[in-house]
Prior knowledge:
With 117 residues, the protein is mainly alpha-helical. It has one domain (5-100). The chain is elongated, with a radius of gyration of 17 Å. It has helices spanning 20-28, 40-53, 61-69, 83-96; strands spanning 5-9, 12-16. Helix 1 packs antiparallel against helix 2, helix 2 crosses helix 3 and helix 2 packs across helix 4. A hairpin with a 2-residue loop joins strand 1 (5-9) and strand 2 (12-16).
Amino acid sequence: MSTKINVTYKKQEYTLxxxxxxxxxxxxxxxxxxxxxxxxxxxxxxxxxxxxxxxNRGIKRSLVDxxxxxxxxxxxxxxxxxxxxxLVEMYxxxxxxxxxxxxxxxxxxxxxKVTKG
Length: 117
């Protein structure tokens, strides 16, 4: 099961989570996780917007930016993960599904073998 964040802003609730398609869209727009610290003005907005894609189709970037501007605990405190760190973990969780052996349905698993001729 994937991690989700529920955000309430101006009495409207938004469910944030990533899908493979959302991650691909983020990467197509230039998101690179390793550049988060070097290019925060570019990467953080992409990370945040990407979390809205799956469940909030058509949401305007300006609204996402406004919501993010008003998010509390962006970096966390007292040892608790902040909003950004939680998004990073959710992103990584989604990327892991590409290589996770446990993700295959055992009853419907595709098997493979090497044949050398």
